Amino acid sequence: MSLHLDARQRAMLQEMGVTVWGPPPAAAPTAPPAAPSAAVSAAAVEARSPAAAPAHAPAPPPVAAAPRSAAPLPTAAPRTPPPSTSSVAPPSTGPAAPALQLHAPQALYPTADPAQTPAGLGSGWLIVAESLTPADPLGGDAGRLLDNMLRAMQLHRHPRVFLAALERPGPGAEASAHIPATLADVVATLQPAMVLVLGHVAARAALGRTEPLGRLRAGPHQLAGCPAVVTYDPAFLLRSQDTKAAAWADLCRALALVRGA
């Protein structure tokens, strides 16, 4: 079979890999083969017959990965905490709180006639109370109320009624540890039949107790072997008029203890 192919057709067949046997026509010069392009080469591969190419090309052998170095991963340097800008200052001790001052006992009714002292009042009374004016304990409203309380008990007719006044030098003053021992010495010297403690401040200072005043009022107490009764102080009674009856009941209980002894 003769094929009448021109130069362009022969070049295309050659690009497709088809060999044409036979001399080219004399009239047409033979063109030099062009360099195959990537697109034409791909088309030529697809146009090949299945018989010419294997159905399944063997897969290329896997490329072995280069062995990785077994060097350990670098570890991060430990973080150093930033220096603290605040420091905990030691607790400030500061100046010590002022302590309650215990004044020497003074007789409240020194001019009373012992011959006119009613029976049943005992050998004497010691009153421990906080006083705003230790030099004049029966002055002011609280002092006059204290005088009325003692007169109601007929103690104004007893020459041996003493007051150991506690003075608060400033706010927040607390009783010092030596007050109970000092009061014990006073009781040993005066030998009273009863110690009357007026108010919570006086109770804490004289007895060293911290219970509420209501509980202290109910219980029996002793100071250096002498019976003691706790009741309200005159300053509190001025602020709370409804507690006067309870205070009078405490005074009557103290009188009953003295008379019973």
Description:
The protein has 261 residues and is an alpha/beta fold. It has eight helices and seven strands; from the N terminus they run ααβββαβαβααββαα. The radius of gyration is 60 Å and the shape is rod-shaped. It starts with 6 loop residues before the first helix and ends with a helix.
- If you average the pLDDT, what whole number results? 78
- Estimate percent helicity: 25-40%
- Number of alpha- plus pi-helical segments: 8
Query: What percentage of amino acids are in beta strands?
Result: 5-15%
Roughly how many Å is the radius of gyration?
A: 60 Å
Outline the biggest β-sheet. 7 strands, mixed
Quickly give the structural class.
alpha/beta
N-to-C span: 162 Å
Low-confidence region ranges: 36-47, 49-57, 84-90
Please trace the helix and strand order, writing H or E for each element: HHEEEHEHEHHEEHH
Tell me the number of strands: 7
Basic shape: rod-shaped
Write out key terms for the chains shown.
single chain; alpha/beta; seven-stranded mixed beta sheet
In short:
By secondary structure, the protein is of the alpha/beta class. The protein is built from eight helices and seven strands.
